[in-house]
Amino acid sequence: MTHTLQKVFPIAAAAVLYATLASHAYADETVKIGHVAPLTGGIAHLGKDNENGARLAVEEINAKGLTINGQKVTLVLDPQDDAADPRQATQVAQRLVDDKVVGVVGHLNSGTSIPASKIYSDAGIVQISPSATNPTYTQQGFKTTYRVVATDAQQGPALANYAAKSLKIKNVAIVDDATAYGEGLANEFEKTAKALGLNVVSHDATNDKAVDFRAILTKIKGEKVDAIMYGGMDATGGPFAKQAKQLAITAKVLAGDGVCTEDLSKLAGDASDNVICSEAGMALEKMAGGPEFSAKYQKRFGQPIQIYAPFTYDAVYIIVDAMKRANSTDPAKILAAMPATDYKGVIGETQFDSHGDLKSPVISLYDYKAGKKTLLDIVKM
C-alpha cells in the first residue's frame, strides 16, 4: 500500500504542477496604459474629456479582444491628475513609470507635457500627447515623444493669416497667460502677424489663474485695436472675452485651441460670439469617423465632446497598433515600432516625422454663433 502511494504521489504532484503551469501560460496578461490630464482645477472639464476618449478606446479594445504573441491581453487605463501643474506632472509621470505602464497618453498641457517627457524618455516609454502644441515638446531630442495634433508654429500663423487676410485686421493687441502653451502660441502669432504687416500695438502677460482682466483690457481699449489675440485656456479666455464686452470693446478676440471648446459659451456668455479660435486638428464634423465617434461618446458618457477626446481615443489605438506590429507588450519594442506608424482612425491618417510630429497637420478655424461653435475654415499645413 505504501509502495503504491509513493508511486502515485509523484504522478499527482506532476499533474498539479502541469495544470498550474498551463493555467499561467493561458492566463490573461494585464497591460497598463497611462493617461494624464488635469482632473482638478479650472480646466478639469477638458482633462476629463481627454480621459473619457482614452477610456472609451480601452473599453472597446477589451470588448473586441486583444491577443499579442499568442497571449490574451487585457488593457487597464491608469488615469492620473496633474492639475495642469508642471511639478505635479513630473510626480505623476514617475508614478506611471513605477506602475510599469507600457505607454502614456498625455499630458494635456504643453507646460506639463514638456517637463514630464524627460521622465518617460529616461524610462523608455512612449508618450503621445493628444493636445500639447508647443513645438519644444518634440524638439528635445527624445525618441519617446509623439503628438497627434499640429503645433503652435502652425496654429499661430494660421490665426494670424486669417486675421490679416479674412478679417482685414490692421492693429492687434496680444495677451498671454505666461504658460508654455499660452506664451508660445502668442509668440508664434506675433511673429507671423508682424511678417504680414500687422501693427502689434502691445503684448501683455497675465497668468493662468487670473479672474480679473479689467486693468489690461482698459489699457487695450485706449489703444483702439481691431483685434485682441489671447493665448490661454477657456477657463481664463471665457472671462477675458466676457469682460472685454462689458467694457464695450468691440475688437475681435482671437484665440487658440485652449479656448476653442464647447464650454466657452458658458464661460463667456454671449461674448463668445465675438471670439474666433483655432483647433490644432481636423474639425470633428469633418473627420471620417467623427459623427460615429461623437454618437458613441455621447451614449457612453452622456455629454458632448469638449475638444480632444477623439485624439486621446486614437492615441490609445496607436499604442496598441505598435504593440501588434511589435508582437510584444515590452515597452522598448512598442517604442521601436512607433516611427513606422501609419494608422487610420477617427482623426484621419496618422504618420509621424522624425521628431514625432504629424506629417500632415491640419488647423480648423471656428467662430461662435448664438453661443454655438461653428466651423469657418480648415487649413492644411
Automatic annotation (TrEMBL):
Signal peptide: 1-27
Gene3D superfamilies assigned: 3.40.50.2300
Domain Leucine-binding protein stretches: 30-354
SUPFAM superfamilies: Periplasmic binding protein-like I
Biological processes annotated in GO: amino acid transport
KW Signal (keyword) present: yes
Superkingdom, taxonomy of origin: Bacteria
Keywords: Amino-acid transport, Signal, Transport
Entry similarity comment: Belongs to the leucine-binding protein family.
Protein name, entry field: Branched-chain amino acid ABC transporter substrate-binding protein
Record organism: Pararobbsia silviterrae
